[in-house]
UniProtKB/TrEMBL annotation, chain A:
Belongs to the binding-protein-dependent transport system permease family. This is Sugar ABC transporter permease. GO terms for cellular component: plasma membrane. GO terms for biological process: transmembrane transport. Keywords: Cell membrane, Membrane, Transmembrane, Transmembrane helix, Transport. InterPro entries: ABC_transporter_permease, MetI-like, MetI-like_sf. Residues 75-301 form the ABC transmembrane type-1 domain. The keyword Transmembrane applies. The chain crosses the membrane at residues 21-44, 79-101, 113-133, 164-187, 208-230, 280-301. It comes from Streptomyces griseoruber.
From TrEMBL, chain B:
Belongs to the binding-protein-dependent transport system permease family. GO terms for biological process: transmembrane transport. The lineage of its organism: Bacteria, Bacillati, Actinomycetota, Actinomycetes, Kitasatosporales. It comes from Streptomyces griseoruber. This is Sugar ABC transporter permease. Gene3D superfamilies: MetI-like.
Amino acid sequence: MTTLTLRTKRRRSALRTLAFLSPWLIGFAVFFAYPMISTVYFSFMHYDGFKPPTWSGTKNWTYVFESYPFFWPALRNTLWLVVIMVTLRVLFGLGIGMLITKIKTGTGVFRTLFYLPYLAPPVAATMAFAFLLNPGTGPVNSILEKTGIPAPGWFNDPDWSKPALTLMFLWGVGDLMVIFMAALLDVPKEQYEAAELDGASAWQRFRFVTLPNISPIIMFAVVTGVIAAMQCYTQPLVAGKVASGVIQGAGTMFEPGYPEHSTLTLPQLVYNLGFQRFDYGSACVVALVLFALSMAFTALLMRRRGGLIQAGD
Amino acid sequence: MTQVLERPVELRSPATPAERTARRKALLEWIAVHSLGVAAALFFTLPFVFVFLTSLMSDSQALSRDLIPHTWEWANYRRVFDTPGFLTWWKNTLIYAGLGTVLTVVSSIPVAYALAKFRFRGRNLTLMLVISMMMLPPQVVVIPMYLFWAKQLDLSGTLWPMIIPLAFGDAFSIFLLRQFLMTIPNEYVDAAKVDGCGDLRTLLKIVLPMAKPGIAAVALFQFFNAWNDYFGPQIYASENPGAWTLSYGLESFKGAHHTDWNLTMAATVLVMAPVILVFFFAQKAFVEGVTLTGVKG
Amino acid sequence: MSARMPEVVRKAAFALTASTALLLSTTACTGQAASGASDDASKEQTITFWHAWSAPNEVKAVKALVAGFEKAHPNIHVNVVGNMTDDKINQALRAGGSKAPDVISSFTTNNVGKFCSSGALIDLNPFFKKSGIDPNTTFPKAMNEYTQYQLDRCAVPLLGDAYGLYYNKTAFEKAGISSPPKTWSEFEADAKKLTIPQGDTYKQLGFMPDYHGWETTTEHYMGQFSPTYFDKSGKSTVATDPAVTDALELQKKLVDDLGGFTKLEKFRSGLGDEWGPKHPFQTGQVAMQLDGEWRLGMALATKPDFEIGVAPLPVADDQADQYGKGYITGTIAGIAATSKKQNAAWEFVKYVTTDTDAVVGFSNAIHNVPSTLDALKSPKLTYDPRFKTFLDIAANPNSTTSPASVNGGVYLTTLQQLGYDYESGRLTDLSAGLKKAAAQIDTDIAQAK
């Protein structure tokens, strides 16, 4: 009798759980599981969207890794963004976060001003920076030239296009600022006071009190930054299009990466292969590479103790 | 400004030499910090200022290197609104963002609730899958999804391929809501159960009213996501100008006006402005949301 | 395991079955139906027509053309969608469906190979036969050729383009140049003479040679050297064809002589746009322009304060006898295989591409080269005397185009990429670069097959 009610209870509880989870379960099946399986399937098929797909073995894989001219440049750019842009962004975000905790007058105004750029829609922000950094008519180079500093070509120069993108991402550092600000305010005051009594210098206080306390947040910022850098799509694509001047080149085929592959990223390759060259198979290969990289770093994020998943209940 | 002036006055009271050096140090630090603050504020705001100033320049001046408009051409904004399609992009963006947000919130709440408050086998697995989906760029699954929407359902050239999936829970929203619901003490839920409330009633009557800030944050994020989305419209809506959104249309606007930077910047301002306005009205919920994604771990 | 386990299993099983079912349905439906047009062209209906024109006068001309058709066929209405790039056309032809176009037109002939071989656009030969029109006697030879691929006629020429040289006669006089250059070495000398520097930029630039300068693309330069691109077996010849090397070296020399890549690119980033009134040739910022025949009408419409001269582009010094040739291409139109109104679509295509008055009217309006032999001879064809230069280039037997390839224009973009690397100085060993490009072109084509 008791076991039976227990079982009914359990079944009811399972059904209840299932009911609550059902929107996501359907979403998971239709918008994740199915397309993932399908992506793997298409990666072994030759498919151009017109004729039915035909089996092509590992041809797409060897093509992407060995012959597709954009793959390695895109990966190199991604590495650049991951190493340089993410580092700078975390340091800058931390710096701004510390600054805002130190600011005593007009804190609210400063915080809002620092945060606003993060909200600028990516296409609009990119459009704005393409204008600001335009080597011919943009205000930034006008000012630089007036002060006699050599003005770079920014989005028109392959050596400067990624720094220009980085500058734009530093501008939108608001998310990190808020996270660091919250973390810094959470550091127990007593620890600072104790350190001060021990005669610790400002740097020592930062090194031995602040850093250990906020290191999980730094880690979080780095890992999510890496994931975001790998998935960077809209900004480099739009920047390249705007800077090249062939944004809607009727008749001309715009392949992403202007100037000279320097703004190519992996997600853009999926677009280039899938929706410009219509080689769906190879596009799926790149998609799987992107998937593997994203998941590897997501796993890192989830393994972090007390990380994204809160322990127990 | 007044506050800047107040500080030194307050510091002028008589004091011992030691106190004086300490105060001088504090004053110097105050000046250093606030100068840095002003410098940073300039870095963050000047781009907006330049964009706005350029949006008011005449066509010929927009190509020159002057920074301040000679004549203030407010009519530029009129010209942007007169661009064929601009109002349609607005309408579409509002539909995508509005409808998408409502669907996301409605479908994500029960899932987040289950993940936060139910005990069941596979909960951690589910949560891990949710996070995985959250971290997944849309490009990974776009080939089969595009073929599915375009070839099976004949919905390319519409907003539906971007809106319909939101009716089945959005991973990021589920995660964010779950983080928020975790902060609501279980005692409230248990008490409601003791009073004989079913799960649905508990969720609707007890938990939801307490979760308003979390829901607001999720709604805001989703609204902005839709507003900012470029890839979705590029893949699904590009073939039908009647389905373009602001983010996608803005690029084509640049395409049609090339170096009429004044008009492009006016359009840019019009795309940015609503987001910034919404932010001012909902600042608290927003900042809370950003913090929730990381810190409450 | 415990009683809760099956739920996970069930969940997984559900996900799996759902996804396999969807997967199967996707793969089963991807085949294209064979084109057997059986729709009734005489009933009341609306067809969708996509085109790529975007300049205001061109959009207006398309409207007039369509209005003429609707007048002749009152039962067929045309929903016109403009400013559609090849990417979007390609995408829609694959997707099909209710919003997809019935009739498309594209500025590039590059995709004809892909469109024909894949069956994306239907073979129009049966329609021509049914209507009693012989394409061979209707269209000029070159245009007739670039609209088919291996005997499959999936496209029809809708006006043609020829590329020539525009020059600022007033600036020429000021610089003491009496006639347009006929060889590239004359051209180079003239371009230098016409360049007036101003600080680190230009008051007037003789010629904007950069590949990103709109029509100064690799294939347009190369057109003046008559390259072959592919050998008989379909392999790329860019590494062995001297025409390719000559064209690339010429452009590089122009870049270096006129101020260097960085300076030119900076100047370019501040120029007006190709389809707007502030085009640098029209404003006098650039004295010579490699451009298509449409520029004449556009430039005249902005009433520039100088006299515009038109000539064929120069040729290599050792090919002086071929002066007068140029790169030719054209807009093409075709009917989507996914269209359910193919007979009605054909009525439209037939009207816009073969009706002499329609072709002449459209050509007069957008100043393109007419694409039927009758239209070329039509007394109604009105043009500026200078426009004759382009008609002659189009008729010149030495004029060339870039051949159709199974993966569209990818080989041209590969070559263009090489051009970017070479003009900026990143690539110094041209012959090694060309060998790599040739191998790339071959692998890309193999991958697309």
